[in-house]
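Support request, please re-run this one:
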Amino acid sequence: MFLTISTTGTPENPATDLGFLLHKHPDNAQAFSTAYGTAHVFYPEASAERCTAALLLEVDPVALVRRGKGKGRGGAPDTALAQYVNDRPYAASSLLAVALSTVFKSALRGVCNALPDRAAAPLPLRVELPAVPARGGAELVRTLFEPLGWAQVDARPVPLDESFPEWGDSRYVRLVLQGELRLRDALRQLYVLLPVLDDAKHYWVAPDEVDKLLRAGEGWLADHPEQKLITSRYLSRRWSLTRQAMDRLELIRLAEADDLRLEDVDNAVDETSDTEDRPVPLAVQRREAVLAELHAAGASRVLDLGCGQGQLVQALLQDVRFTEIVGMDVSVRALAVAARRLRLDRLGERQASRVSLVQGSLAYTDKRLTGYDAAVLSEVIEHLDPPRLPALEHAVFGTARPGTVLVTTPNVEYNVRWETLPAGRVRHADHRFEWTRAEFRTWAASVAERHGYRVRFAPVGPDDPEVGPPTQMAVFERTAADGTAPDAPRHTPADPAPRPRDEPQARTDATEKEGENA
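Re-run finished. Output below.
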């Protein structure tokens, strides 16, 4: 496999600065051992006007077979001969991507203590690869690279045999990229897109590949028009990993759109304290109201969608009437905290069989959520951008279709009663909206009508005669057309006793984390 990276320069900024940026001296030819062969770095030309660095990877086909445990290309069983005679030594693939990360590790991170300004600035670059396997052809190559800022993406198909043009083109292209980019961005793009174009990897794709993808894709993958294809191919079409990566990329997109740090978006976990250990009267009232409605509905198999740190899951687990409890959240960090809260590693076999925590997003349909008696979305919907509410509606009411759905959300009219909440501010920085009672009722009624549910509303917390309760709850019940008897006897839960509003309670609820991003 062969790759060259060229740049031009001036007397003030000589092209040989490329050697500093790659941490490889132009006067030396160097060799580096990799798991599957030897990588050589040398400079065919090095002057102030033009400098070219070349990476040549000599692949050991025997080592490739041995480390692959006898498997052929892409991990699939192959004939004995094809394990040794194939395109791996010649065509740029995941083998070359790994060599890039091994040989140019510091350059990939953009680290150059000698010339930090040059490392941070775009350079006139020309990247050439004589043979790139492209499942999708030259058009896919251009589709992947052109949105990334390259002025020229020249992908020319390599004929099967120049002597027999009637045989047509092979699946390989000769790729030339030209443009002004930071060196680290160019290397990161190659690291991700070479195995994507090949649509195969020479090693097992483990969960840590998601982190590698997001690190290399920082700054460009979240907004790439072919994000889904790139993610799926890079992760070898492993559905669970692809979904995890897509959800995390969506968090990155939201953070960039709102000019926030990622930690401020993925903030179901309070880094400074545990909200459960502080007095949170309204949060307790919400859980009590939800539990009462679940009891009245006779639910035994329950989903907590947007479970956050697992407070409601913990309350459900303590009640033997709930035989199966699933907590789902988009935040892996929140689920880890929930697992510690529930002491999942210490639960007895019987208790452990009742509860499970899964990572997922309500922006997508999920077969794991079907067949349950009830679903709870407690302080969740206000964390979604309004245009994404139809996706949640379809995933929960259109596809999962539990018998009962409980939705709680802040009542924005009550915000005037929070003495510590500035006028016009929402209760949590991550809230995309907070609805009035009329707005919430309108939304809930339309959802119920579209999906065959009936809905009623209940206050949570002190019901102020002027502005209503601090939290509003909608109780959706599937209608008889879906197999639920509308006149079936049910117990009406008593409303939780209103608690007197005082300043400490207001301050606590206004600052607590009320739900997780979905």
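The first helix runs from residue 17 to 22. The first strand starts at residue 2 and ends at 8.
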